[in-house]
Design a protein that fits this description.
The protein is α/β, with parallel strands linked by helices. It has five domains: 30 residues, no CATH class; 169 residues, Flavodoxin domain (Rossmann fold), CATH 3.40.50.360; 100 residues, Translation factors (Elongation Factor Tu (Ef-tu), domain 3); 95 residues, NADPH-cytochrome p450 Reductase, Chain A, domain 3 (Up-down Bundle), CATH 1.20.990; 144 residues, Nucleotide-binding domain of ferredoxin-NADP reductase (FNR) module (Rossmann fold, 3-Layer(aba) Sandwich). Helix content is 39%, strand content 20%. The chain contains 23 helices and 23 strands. A hairpin with a 2-residue loop joins strand 10 and strand 11. The longest helix has 27 residues. The chain is globular and about 80 Å long. Bound molecules: flavin-adenine dinucleotide and flavin mononucleotide. The site of flavin mononucleotide (FMN) has 24 residues, from helix 4.
Length: 602
């Protein structure tokens, strides 16, 4: 069929039967122009999910469907990466399987599943990742299906410095059992250094399933385009690239304590290729003052050789790479148990001193209960490795090749009357001189991507350092000549001190690369003004942009801002779309499924 025929009768090429084609045609004719435009944006956005399903039916040859269903719920890509890895192991062993993002999981997937592998992280304060929330809610509702037919195992990712460690994985585990599913391997909870425990869980699960699998050796798997596109680089958090510093410039006014830096690093020769939306991992190292303060409280000589992360190294060096700041109640209990000294172990009387009653300082704990009978290696092995920190990339590889830019707020806090700094933000803020380097690796974020269709409008909500990825987005859209409009909502405390990248935004406006910018400076007037207030003020237009297929992104503070913005969005869908609260919530979920509502909040 040639193009002319297609243009004359597009329905003749429709991939469904004549009566369905007629029904769709009839429906489309009833829609107004803006409604059609909105629908086209919606369909384009949901195409990748649909493609996933198509691939599944095209490749699958085992009539019983996949032997294994891998469900992943990931915010920043770790669980997604592990789902891909275990999928590859099954593929190599010829086990039919399907890998599904939790947001794309329907009841029918669960009903068809035989072996279910759940790989999920925890975010917020013990909450599911955005893309896992709907399934989590479904399973905990009265609409949850019976799962008596399936066997499952859960791999939970988390960070034990949070009070509700691996909470979402625990909840999935408990709920699957309540719904009748049988656990065939115990859940594994992984801390920040998750690779080893995750590998063990994966190996053991694969072995178990391969042993039982008696079906034909076929590859029946679903891997989204986004996952396939991920290119690995040689540099990881265990083997970071030492990126030379190109620029370290303060963005906030010099007379305020808030110190936000624009940092440029060179990636030349690294082979690291990032996309706007990705983050850069910084392999953090404790400041020498913090290490020395701890060493002074310990009964060991600083050069004592200890075994740490499979190598022998001096204690001082090992402590630079361990988490020696806050300790949790769980750590205190574990530590006191290890001390053989009766007064220490029996006391358990160490009282956390912080106001929130959750954390205290390792150095204080050690001063009150010195590890007298503990070997230095045992002491070090009780500590967690210092977790790398992520920073949203604020540059476009097309606009500034071989460079990566970051927007870093220096974390400062007071303890016992002394000013302290955040480990990684201080390390970055202190970079200076010709020889300065930062140990970095690429952290892909497939859940925060510009629309594939460069004509689609984009709405970006990023107060504070949340603006970083949007600097990358706008630079990228300009560099590739995207014709879709760009609308930025930015905020801070004061216009004069906190308007990050002010001149750049004004230049983009002049050049027509940024079509609208809404500003909210909270403390420049008597009443507090935040980005969500600006969204509401422009609610009608914001709704119109969404109807035209806009993709909406939120980046920055997870504790307050992200939730306020989401509530405001729901409100706009109700007020300007005429929807009930329930319908507005469904619309938002649909936007999320179509990857037109994406968040990167921390
Ligand atoms: C996907 C993602 C993207 C991000 N993007 C950015 C970005 O673009 N820009 C940006 O600036 N940040 C960003 N962050 C946050 C960043 O990763 C770090 O969390 C942040 O810089 C703090 O790290 P730090 O090592 O400096 O501070 P930490 O040392 O981790 O301290 C953090 C906080 O913990 C508390 N604390 C630490 N030590 C102690 C102690 N001993 N006693 C009591 N309290 C303590 C303090 O309240 C402090 O505020 C992002 C995070 C994520 C997950
Ligand atoms: C903002 C934020 C909040 C988090 N909250 C928790 C938490 O409450 N409990 C927990 O165990 N882990 C928490 N984590 C740690 C993540 O679960 C962990 O980094 C995990 O490896 C992320 O996997 P993902 O990339 O697949 O989402 C949090 C991480 C971030 C960035």
């Amino acid at each position: 069929m040639n193009d002319a025929t297609l243009a004359a009768d597009p329905w003749s090429a429709a991939p469904f039967d004549a009566s369905t084609a007629q029904a769709v045609q009839h429906l489309v004719q009833q829609l107004s122009a803006p409604q059609r435009l909105w629908l086209s944006g919606y369909l384009a956005g949901s195409a990748s999910a649909a493609a996933t399903q198509l691939e599944s039916t095209a490749i699958g040859v085992d009539p019983r469907g996949p032997a294994v269903t891998i469900l992943y719920g990931s915010q920043s890509g770790n669980c997604e990466g592990l789902a891909k890895q275990i999928g590859e192991s099954f593929a190599k062993r010829g086990v039919p399987h399907i890998a599904l993002d939790m947001l794309d999981c329907r009841k029918s997937h669960l009903q068809d599943a035989r072996r279910l592998l759940v790989i999920v992280s925890t975010h917020g304060e013990g909450d599911p990742p955005d893309r896992a929330a709907a399934l989590h809610e479904l399973l905990h509702s009265r609409k949850a299906p019976s799962l008596k037919h399936l066997k499952y195992s859960v791999l939970a990712l988390g960070d034990s410095s949070y009070e509700r460690f691996c909470e979402t994985g625990r909840q999935f585990d408990k709920r699957l059992a309540e719904l009748g599913a049988q656990q065939f391997q115990a859940r594994v909870d992984c801390d920040v250094d998750y690779e080893h425990s995750a590998r063990q869980w994966m190996d053991s699960v694969v072995e178990d399933i391969v042993r039982e699998h008696d079906g034909p050796a076929v590859v029946h798997r679903v891997v989204s385009e986004r996952t396939l596109a991920a290119v690995s680089t040689a540099y990881t958090r265990k083997n970071p690239f030492l990126a030379p510093l190109l620029l370290n410039q303060r963005l906030t006014a010099g007379d305020v304590t808030r110190d936000v830096r624009h940092i440029e690093l060179s990636l030349e020769g690294s082979g690291i290729h990032y996309e706007p939306g990705d983050a850069l991992g910084i392999v953090a190292r404790n400041a020498s003052e913090s290490v020395e303060a701890l060493l002074a409280a310990l009964p060991y000589t600083p050069d004592t050789s200890v075994s740490h992360e499979s190598t022998e190294r001096p204690l001082r060096d090992a402590l630079a790479h361990c988490d020696i700041g806050r300790v949790t109640r769980a750590f205190i209990e574990k530590y006191l148990e290890r001390l053989t000294d009766a007064s220490s172990s029996a006391s358990g009387a160490f009282l956390p001193v912080n106001a929130d009653d959750q954390v205290t300082q390792l150095v204080e704990l050690v001063r009150q209960h010195p590890p007298k009978d503990l070997h230095a290696t045992d002491f070090v092995q009780l500590l967690r490795p210092l977790a790398p920190r992520l920073y949203s990339i604020a540059s476009s590889p097309r606009a500034t090749p071989d460079e990566v830019h970051l927007t870093v707020a220096l974390v400062q806090f007071e303890l016992n009357g002394r000013l302290h700094y955040g480990v990684a933000s201080k390390q970055l803020a202190d970079l200076q001189g010709d020889d300065a380097v930062a140990p970095v690796y690429l952290h892909r974020n497939p859940n925060f991507r510009l629309p594939a269709d460069s004509k689609a409008p984009v709405i970006m909500i990023g107060p504070g350092t949340g603006v970083a990825p949007f600097r990358a987005f706008v630079a990228e859209r300009e560099a590739v000549g995207a014709t879709g409009r760009n609308w930025l909502f930015f905020g801070g405390r004061h216009f004069r001190a906190d308007f990050l990248y002010q001149t750049e935004w004004l230049d983009y406006r002049k050049r027509g690369a940024l079509h609208r910018i809404e500003l909210a400076f909270s403390r420049d007037q008597a009443d507090k003004l935040y980005v969500q207030h600006r969204m509401r003020e422009h609610g009608r237009e914001l709704y119109a942009w969404l109807q035209e297929g806009a993709h909406l992104y939120v980046c920055g503070d997870a504790q307050q801002m992200a939730n306020d913005v989401q509530q405001t969005l729901l409100h706009i869908l109700q007020e300007h779309g005429g929807h009930s609260p329930e319908r507005a919530a469904e619309e938002l979920l649909e936007l999320q499924r179509a990857r037109r509502y994406q968040r990167d909040v921390y």
